[in-house]
Amino acid sequence: MLSIDVVYDRTHLVQDDMATATATIKNNLPKAANMVMVDLGIPPGFDLLSEDLQAYREKSAGQKSGRLEKFSLTATQAILYFDSFAPGDTVTLKFRLHAKYPIRARTFRSRVYEYYDPEVSSVARPVQLEVR
Description:
- The protein is mostly beta strands.
- The chain has one helix spanning 50-59, and strands at residues 2-8, 12-13, 18-27, 33-41, 46-48, 68-73, 77-85, 90-99, 103-106, 110-114, 117-124, 128-131.
- A 5-stranded antiparallel beta sheet has the order 6-7-4-10-11, covered by helices on one side.
- The longest helix has 10 residues, at 50-59.
- The termini are far apart.
């Protein structure tokens, strides 16, 4: 089974503050997980700073496991495309979120799954965030 957990360093912010999220993705399978997709939920009223994902992509370029091939952003999620995860491997990815305006909202769900076998998946619980 693949697993994902997303933790925020702050859940109460003021407008224009930054929060840092830490996504932990783990391959608990006895074999490699190939073409691993991660959908990171972006909370309403926040912008994800793509340079954090780009920095991880560059850092992981030479790795055999946990290499981020590419990513794309939508209004509600960041879609990450990993090449593969070796058995037991864990990837920890930190990214910043900019609070654009006052809002009280739950994050969109985050999910990890194998592209060719979407049944092999896991979902992280939404988190309540408040911006004043």
